[in-house]
Amino acid sequence: MINEYENFEVSPQYSYQQYQELGGIINENDYQNALDRAQNAVMLNNKTLIGQAESIARVSGITLHNADGVLDKRIILYGKLRTDTNPGVEYHHSQMCDQQLFAEALRMLGDADALKKIIEAYPNIFNTIK
Questions:
Q1: What is the pTM of this model?
Q2: Is 44 a domain residue?
């Protein structure tokens, strides 16, 4: 099955309300900004970020769909969030760990199935220990 989010375009299909319903905590301005910056990107120049996202996905059982020269949009969005800094903001997403940021990217893209997998794979991070 091909990832339906692979070639996403910023459109009403990604709504801030839906993002919040999935538990998203990034403010609406930063949410829209990140989606806008990720819209036309197909690659990241940071192999460490790519490797980190691939590792998180692998541990979580999330299948990524990277093609030659084109990364899965979930990795692109994670990378845009990770490299965005705003030190003057008290609760900025740059203060989140990598797993939390990857989860935010999944929420932003409305990927509830993958979000469930990452939350289950990292119960200590998402405080879901039973």
A1: 0.83
A2: yes
